[in-house]
Amino acid sequence: MQRWAFVLVMVSFLLKIAMASPPGGFPRQLPKANEEATEKLKAAYAAYVQGHYRKAIRLALEVYWEHGDVEAKWFPSWVAKVVKGPIPDPYNQGEVLSRTIKGSFLFTTAIQSTFPSYLLARSYLACGEHKEVEKWLGNLRKLGWEYDGIVRVLTFPHPCGYGEVHSPKNTWHPLPLRFREEDYFILVPLDEACKVLGIPFQLDISPKTKRVRYVFLGKGKLLPGLTQARNIKGEREHLAYAPFEEDGKVWVPFYWLAKQAGIRGWEVRNGKIYVAPKQGTK
Amino acid sequence: MPWGIEENPVIIVGWKAIDGNGNDAGGEFGYTPDGYSFYPVSNPEQVNCYRPSPDFVGILKIAPVLDDIPIGMYSGLPTHDDDRTVGDPWKMTVWEFWITPCPKNWRPVPNTTGPSFIAWVEPETDHLGQPMRGTITFNLISSTEPGECLNNHFACPYDIDIIAGVEVKDFHDHDADLQFPPELEGMVVYGSQEEDEEGPYTHNFTVAVTQQPTTVAEVHILCFDGGGYGFLLAHIDGFPPGSATARRIDTGVIGSVEIPYDADGNFIADVWELNLGIYPADPLGDFDNQPIGDGTFGDGLSVYEEYRGLRVRGTWTVFNPWLKDMFVMNFGAGYYDPVNDRWVEPEIPNEAMTSQDGFPDQGMPLLWLLNANEGETVQQTRQYQDDQGNVHNVLLTGKLVNYLYGYAHVQDVYAAVVVPGSQLLGQNSLAETFGPIWDIDGLPVVEANVEAIKSEAQTWGLNDWIGLTRVIGHELGHTVLWHIDHNPNDTSQAFGGGGGHHVIGQNGRIGQHTIECLMWPYFPASVCPNGFALCLQFDPQWQNHWIFDQGTGRWIPDLTAGWIIFTPAEFCDTNPDCQHLWRLKP
To answer: Which ipTM value was assigned to this complex?
Structure first.
């Protein structure tokens, strides 16, 4: 019954916007987020990708209430580790395209961007709060989003899956694992994390460069310095933050490794990564 | 002859031409008043000229044929009637200096050895017994088209830099397209002396001289350009008659031989024109007519450019001037990364562009996939309007294909550049095309949000590959259907109502995408309600076909029996079909 209530709410909303939908156009340029809003939006984006939807909602709402729908664009910090020379201005579309076509690095895929209404619609959707989803989709509509784009907000999967983890926090346990944070993504050393999480892995080191060129995790595969990957089942995936090698260590976003290990809930508390027990998550 | 007391006259009654073996040399005696005109005469006393047989060369002896008139000059009485006699002949040498023409079946191929040419003197010895040897010089006058074809630079094999211990040939885009090898047996080959940061070097080897006087010399040429053309002239000096320029053995004309064989003089090998049925061709012609499309002739490449060719993924390729060619570059292709010594999987497989399930199809232009380095980067600022009429300037970067042009260029031809990403189009679109395959309305750049396409494909139960093939096929379709505005009443299209954009019509159907071919629907491809090309149409029934899946947190189509299967296996499917709408020129 609840399921059909969702359906009717969403369908009636979509019908409203669809029937009134004027022709689409080039996406309207949103105002550029200031430095503070950019940091919050980056944090909100990382929180959403890592499955911390409530945090994403809180941060995105803070930006929305203060600035409205402003857009943050940035190149993740890993880009500076793999690209020699200056990095283009992320707000200069022409420069980003030009540097991609003239060079050998895909700046067009490495760039990240987000704005509050989009992030809120996605985060609320991941939490199953459909009335809120409807509200923020309405905002997208006002921003000139076409029907197709709005349907995609609803249909695309979430990097860390649907739903919140509700198991009591006192059942969560800390991992004996170092970590660092870049662009609000929690990164862990691959070898240590794989041991802790019980994921078999193998490094392929180039005899020419003496650097790690591939990381194999069962059927999975990571390439330091690239966001393209294959998950542990061998399926192609896109990482929101690229793994990279530093001083012989490969650092990997924890959310992705946790997902490979079947862990749905985790958080950083008191300087440690706590994970929810696998049982009891939905 | 009678004794002189009763002299009778002796007259010339004829002339005789004899070859070196004492045989009749043929030829013709006659009269020339000016040294140029020739009139055969029957009266031998009027003869002041001899014209040898056309094929005669060698030692020639000319002698008068004498006879007496057997009547005494004083007495008027008959005298002895002596037989005719032939006087001692004058000796001379009829010589020729020949050169062979270019073989008719040869056409230039970049970086290959071309044909040989022989120049020789006949006879080898003159009537005085002197050898007819001289110094033979070949002069090659060559084209200097930029690069070696329309999109690849000419790497000079004789100017080599050492970069990080590796020998690298320097680019010499304006070097001679046809040259002699720097070493030819029995000859000295001269080139131009130059100097760069690596030191002196010699290039453009266009003069070859025999080391010793000789009666025969042979040269062969090297070809460095698919459209190379030139002329070869042979000259001999210091042989007994003095000096001479060679005569072609095919036409008998003294002068140069053209390379390649090119009787119509358009710098295109006749053999290529004849094979394609376009002899004699206008080198500037652009009349490609197949596939027919909307009937607009041409693909932007001139006949000469199609003949000269392009590097297509490293392989020199010649095109057919009757067939419309279109070029695409994939910036999401897989590649070897030398810095990290690894292979990187493609973001967008090349098959998404080349598959017969996508853009290439019967009735569509020939699609050639180029490597990214096979075009020249060009930039253009384009203005776009958003849905509120705000104008945005977007700097587009594209790739020009025939940028190394010279002779017979008609227009710039661009590759449709496919770039993975979402930074131009934003997050609410799967892919966007920013200009037609021709110039004017912006460069043909396709940005494809690969991750979004994959997600959408999964929604519809399709694998990534099929999703990318359909979306990119659709976008490539925009580049050749740019001029089609399928929703003329819509005045707020981002491209000024000129088509080429995703629009939603007023009646619940998608504007230009109501065209039922790969242009729509690329998604959803598997199911559509009856009577609609577009599945996500706004029919009241629609709510019955979508469900929210709590497991995945996504809205997914609920396949029901009321939906029909609609898989666009062809680019052009039903009426009105795209095969008769597209074009490659404005």
So the answer is: 0.89
